Amino acid sequence: MIVTQEHLFQWNMEQVLFRIRTDWYSSWEKSGLSFEDWLHDNPKIVGEYCLEQLSDNFDFENFNN
Predict the structure, then answer these.
(1) Which of 60, 54, 55 is nearest to 11 (CA)?
(2) Alpha-carbon gap, residue 28 to 35, rounded angstroms
(3) Sign of CA dihedral 30, 32, 26, 38
């Protein structure tokens, strides 16, 4: 299998979604907030996690769409 930049991007997004779900679930055990309510209370979390993950693991300079 040839790994492309698209595969790497998808893998990074999967890592972000896993982290968001994990953080929400650990918060849910304490607060009982629904996923939507938790995202409403943490509006920047998706962008922050995406930026952090992609900055660490994705080569934007060589990405060709």
Answers:
(1) 54
(2) 8
(3) negative
Question: 15: number of CA atoms within 13 Å, CB side?
Answer: 16
- Stated pTM of the model: 0.74
Provide φ and ψ at 4, rounded to 5°.
-105, 170
Is it the case that residue 8 has pLDDT exceeding 60?
A: yes
Q: How far apart are CA 27 and CA 45, in angstroms?
A: 13
Judge whether residue 35 has pLDDT over 80: yes
Query: Which segments of the chain does DSSP mark as H helices, in order?
Result: 5-31, 35-41, 45-57
d(CA 50, CA 45): 8
